[in-house]
Every structure is written in C-alpha cells, then in structure tokens.
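// run 5 | inverse folding | seed 20
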C-alpha cells in the first residue's frame, strides 16, 4: 500500500483560531492519520468522576528540560535545500518556531562526517608539521554549503536553538590499532585514538566550536565520540570508557583554557553497552574515576547521552540513581525498513512511549532523533552506513510532497507543550492499562501533559492541577495527545485540523500558494497553486 503523502506547509493553510488565555490547547495524532497534530482548544468540561482524574503536583519537581529535536545531517540539509525557499521556510517555521510553530528547540550535528554525509572526511585529513599539527583544519563543503546554511535558517526562526555535536571518527592520522599496539590504523573504520594525540584532538574540538561560532552558530554541547563501542560504522572510532576518560580530561581542560562553556556528555551509545561486560555502566565508571581527580574544566562534564539500539531504557534509572546530580540526554533513535518505520500506527506507539515518554520519566532532559529529512530512497547516504533508515520526514523527488513519520510526531508532540526550562512534575491518581504519560510545569507556570493511549478504544480522562483547574480530555484509540493548560497563546498560532470532504470529492480547493489537506484522505497534504485542481 502506498504510504500517505504530505507536503509543505499545512501549518499556514488555515486562519488562526483564538484561544482563551485561561483555557489552553490539545494536539492529537493517531496511527490512521485521522488526527495529524490536530489542534483544539480545551473545552472547560468538568467531571465529578475523580476516580478517573490525573492529579498534577506542580511543586514536586524532577529534571529541568533542555528541549527536543532532530539530527541535521548533510543528507537532511541536501534535501531541504532542494525545496523552494518558500516551502522550506514554511516547513522550518512550522517545526522550529516557538511562536508560529511547534517550537522544536534542539538539533544534533556531526563533527566531520557521519553515515549521512557526502563522503568520508574529517576536518583535518592532512597532518600538519610537528609544531602545528592542525594546520590544515577546515570545515568541509558538507558544513559550509549544506549544514551551516540550514542551521542559519533555523536559528533565524528560533534563536534559542540548542546544538549538540559529535564526531564519528577522529582524523585517520590520529588512529592506532590499540593503545597497547600503537601501530598506525589508517582507516575510517575502527581504530583507537592514540594517547599521544589527546591534546591535539581536544584542540580539534576547540577549533570546530570556534569555526562554528565564526559562522554565528553556538555549539551548546558535544560528546567525545558517537557510538564509542561500535567499531563497524562507515566512519567510527573505538573508545572504551577508560580511554574516553583520559581524553575527556584533556578536552575539558582545552575548553576551559579557550574560554568555552560547551557542555560535555559522555558515552553517546546504547543502553546495553553493546553487550560488553567491561563497559557496563560506562559513564558511571568515568564519574567514579573523576571523583578524586581534579582538572581544569571538570564542571563541563555534565552528564551522559544514550541511544536505544540495544538494551532497555531502565538503564537511565540505574545511572541516575548512581549519580543523580548528572544529566541524562537521549540523542539518537532511528526508524527504517527493519521496524516497519513507515507504518504510523505501530511506529507511533513504539516511538511515543519509548522515545517520548520513557526517556522523560527516567530523568532525561531532552530527546533527539536521527535524520530530520531523507528522500524516498532513504538517502542520500554512504556505503557502510544505514541503507534502510527513514527520516522523520521523507520527501518525494519533486521536493514538495512529503510524508511525516512517527519521529516527527513524537518530537513535535513534546515540543508543542513542553518549553525549554520546564520541569517534569509528579502526578498521582488515574492510571489505565495501556496509557503512558508524563507531566511538566513550564517556566511561565503553564502545565503540560503528554499521553499515549495504546488501547483500541477511546478513553476519557480528567486532568486537574489539584486546585482550580479540572479538564476532561479525550484519548482516541492508538493516539498521542499533548495538553497545555493555563497559558496565553501567541498571536498567529494556527490550528491543524482535518477538513471535511466537499460535496464533490473529486476536487481540491486551495488558497493561493498554500498547502491544503486532501478532502478525501485525512492527514494528506498537497501543494497547489492559484486555481482549482482536479484529481
């Protein structure tokens, strides 16, 4: 069956609907696309059935949220830049604007190549003379011609955007077969970072951060190595915990001496540490080692990052319990052919619960998924990298029509009601088998609840702040629902809704130059021009 298609940019196709300041809004998506980030106002309906009430406890707080987002790779940027300026601006505004869109607030980029780059490269492929080893450091065309222009467009829309960066590999001339066997390992794949280059590689990170700052782009955080226990990626570097510990000390010191405040997140890999017994609780081992070690910049080592390609998210609780003062950040998940990623019903259920809600309920301060946009051939991508991945958005060859996949919905459901700086809060009361939820208090005092109903029947739940607000919320079958209570709405925020079919369902009527919903297929959006279009 051909998958549903969307196009740029449904967000501006409707007139704004006023929302009372003391009410709020609800976003709903289900696996059938009957609801597609469909927005409605809170009704103010109340129920006396307190047995089905979720009681929010805004004064009992947990972690503070940094934000939610996507990876902006070369491939994502390549596809975005193939779109018309108008279409791209509308899509990016819909996604990233905190006042006119969903307010997505975080992106992840690579330092050098990743498996969705144009080729394998580092930012210093040629070794310089001994007194200036990084003489040939430079940003590659993937950055200068693709990723940076897209980042600048996003930053113009959301200047508070946070950016985290990670390398897939160091320059090949820094690699050795192992620290005990320091013979050269001149390969993009595998190898270890030679301890003799720890300082040089730390300076490489500094040069990258400064080069991006020169472009007007602030790097908020880094991790020392993407997937340090995966030697088999198309570009990779094997970095066990004790080697990362040695390098991170030099990195933190280099940052401090350069006047950088960039955060450092350890690990950046799977919950199960790829099954390696010696690497279990990888970041905790480094924290333990650092407890009695003082070095410049130690305070920059703020936490650890995780992916979900192996193991269980309960590991987040384990690490939090060991080091509750350290942050946890979820930085990568993928959908693809292996997990039927374009089947929204099954994928939305899995991703909403495991990426959107379990990470939050297990102390993560943010969640980031993999490629923002790929084409319908799952690319462009590199040999040796993921050939079977889908994007959060998959765009057609016309670079107009596109499909929103589950990752887009998950990140936007979170971002639309949970603002950067929000705190997760406690709840008590109603619970129903197959319903997962998490609650937050935003910096402006508004309250947010995100729920997923995995049941095949509609449910109703009451949400109360325990004082004076009491709202009845409908949870459609197999649906994600995001609720925002007690907040003023920014001017111009548009409502996304399914349009009823006209009497002549063979026709689509549109406004000039906007994206319109198909009248016969809810959740499907098509680009139209000035005149009526017939199917």
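// decoded
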């Amino acid at each position: 069956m051909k998958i549903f298609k969307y196009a740029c940019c449904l967000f501006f196709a409707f007139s704004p609907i006023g929302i009372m300041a003391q009410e709020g809004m609800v976003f709903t998506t289900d696996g059938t696309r009957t609801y597609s980030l469909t927005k409605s106002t809170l009704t103010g309906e109340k129920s006396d059935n307190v047995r089905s009430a979720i009681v929010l406890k805004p004064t009992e707080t947990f972690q503070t949220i940094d934000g939610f987002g996507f990876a902006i790779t070369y491939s994502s940027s390549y596809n975005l830049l193939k779109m018309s300026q108008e279409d791209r601006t509308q899509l990016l505004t819909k996604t990233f604007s905190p006042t006119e869109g969903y307010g997505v607030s975080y992106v992840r980029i690579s330092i050098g190549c990743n498996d969705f780059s144009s080729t394998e490269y580092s930012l210093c492929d040629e070794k310089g003379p001994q007194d200036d080893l990084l003489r040939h450091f430079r940003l590659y065309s993937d950055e200068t011609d693709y990723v940076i222009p897209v980042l600048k467009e996003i930053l113009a829309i959301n200047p508070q955007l946070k950016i985290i960066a990670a390398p897939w590999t160091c320059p090949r001339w820094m690699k050795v077969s192992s620290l005990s066997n320091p013979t050269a390992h001149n390969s993009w794949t595998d190898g270890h970072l030679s301890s003799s280059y720890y300082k040089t590689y730390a300076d490489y990170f500094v040069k990258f951060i400064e080069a991006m700052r020169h472009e007007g782009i602030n790097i908020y955080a880094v991790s020392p190595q993407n997937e340090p226990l995966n030697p088999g990626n198309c570009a990779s570097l094997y970095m066990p915990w004790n080697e990362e510990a040695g390098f991170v000390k030099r990195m933190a010191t280099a940052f401090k001496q350069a006047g950088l405040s960039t955060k450092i997140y350890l690990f950046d890999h799977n919950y199960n540490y790829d099954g390696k017994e010696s690497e279990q609780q990888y970041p905790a081992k480094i924290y333990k080692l650092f407890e009695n070690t003082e070095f410049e910049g130690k305070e920059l080592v703020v936490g650890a990052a995780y992916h979900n390609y192996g193991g269980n998210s309960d590991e987040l609780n384990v690490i939090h319990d060991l080091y509750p003062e350290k942050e946890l950040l979820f930085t990568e998940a993928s959908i693809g052919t292996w997990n039927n990623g374009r089947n929204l019903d099954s994928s939305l259920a899995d991703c909403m619960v495991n990426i959107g809600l379990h990470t939050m309920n297990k102390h993560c301060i943010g969640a980031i998924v993999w490629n923002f946009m790929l084409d319908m051939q799952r690319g462009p991508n590199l040999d040796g990298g993921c050939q079977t991945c889908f994007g959060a958005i998959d765009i057609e060859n016309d670079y107009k029509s596109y499909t929103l996949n589950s990752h887009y919905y998950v990140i936007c459901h979170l971002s639309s009601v949970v603002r950067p700086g929000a705190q997760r809060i406690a709840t008590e009361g109603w619970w129903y088998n197959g319903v997962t939820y998490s609650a937050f208090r935003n910096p402006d005092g508004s309250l947010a609840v995100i729920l997923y109903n995995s049941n095949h029947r509609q449910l109703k739940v009451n949400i109360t702040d325990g004082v004076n607000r009491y709202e009845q919320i409908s949870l459609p079958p197999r649906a994600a629902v995001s609720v925002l209570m007690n907040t003023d709405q920014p001017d111009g925020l548009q409502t996304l809704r399914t349009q009823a079919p006209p009497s002549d369902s063979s026709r689509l009527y549109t406004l000039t130059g906007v994206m319109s919903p198909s009248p016969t297929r809810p959740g499907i959006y098509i680009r139209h021009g000035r005149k009526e279009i017939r199917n």
